[in-house]
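Now read this:
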Amino acid sequence: MVFWYCNFSWEGGLLEDKADIFIKQLKIEEFILKEIDSRQYKEGTKIPSENELSSAFDVNRHTVRKAIERLCKLGRIYSVQGKGCYVSKKPSMVIYPVLSSGCFSDKLSRRGKSHYSKLLDWAKALPSAEEQKRLGLSEIELIYRLEILRFVDDVPLSLYTSSLPEKRLPDLEKHLVNFSSLYKILREQYGIAPKSKYQMVEATFSTPKDLTYLGINEHISVLKVTSLAELPDGQPIEFVVSRFRSDRYKLKIQFGP
């Protein structure tokens, strides 16, 4: 296998400390990822050996091994004992439209993707301080809090905590039997079609709960999306904290129609 890498000189000469080793490790990772993303290394292709990478980057095999281990944990390559490492199949990405009108489920259906939601748990409870603030409630007004796991093409991709004011959705629990879609319940049982007011996105570390329900490892970060939906009269109806697995979602921000 033939490949090349341009080695840039560093003025002053860095000491061979942990920071320098880590920088070299990142360079190896970036090189391999670039070759994968540009399809120089296609799915199933064997990547250069530890010896080849060690020689090309002028580092010891331990540094190369750390880079390879990290890429394996991220799911970009996989190891075959006694043979080497190969490029993994790239998972299909789901595009999530930020601040988009319309139902996300409908958009998935139009793209030919199967999807469904599973209600993990629900409770009628007093609101937290954050829920009070976002939903405009007093500390004694009850909310419904739903934990929902969403699947796309049979893969668990996102975990939702949805909080809704009980006073606007009386007897919601009666409609949670055989749950399939919260917005379908709101539309068909209450004549409500919430509109997104805002969404805030941040990258964060995965939690044990994320690992359990999303089927990811601790090296995969999650995209945390905090959103508020309101009624046509401007009254808040749903406060949601969603956690998307970052290895399968892309966020799309569209300005204008």
Remarks:
- Residues 18-87 form a domain with the Arc Repressor Mutant, subunit A fold (CATH 1.10.10.10).
